[in-house]
Amino acid sequence: MAKVGDGINDAPALAAADVAAMIALSRRVMANIRQNIAIALGLKLVFLVTTIAGVTGLWPAMCLGC
Fold first, then answer.
1. Which sequence spans correspond to the domains of the chain?
2. Is residue 5 scored above 70 in pLDDT?
């Protein structure tokens, strides 16, 4: 657990803070966000190609996740 204070009597709270775990958690969250964005853009690209090829329309690409 991370803690933030105003600097007055914060030593006990800061001593109990675990910044290493918070950094690891934030890195995992950012990796998940990057993965989700990559998958979403990849699916949009697939639907763009299939739309240009005449296999699908643009509605599946726009409503993916609706």
1. 11-63
2. no
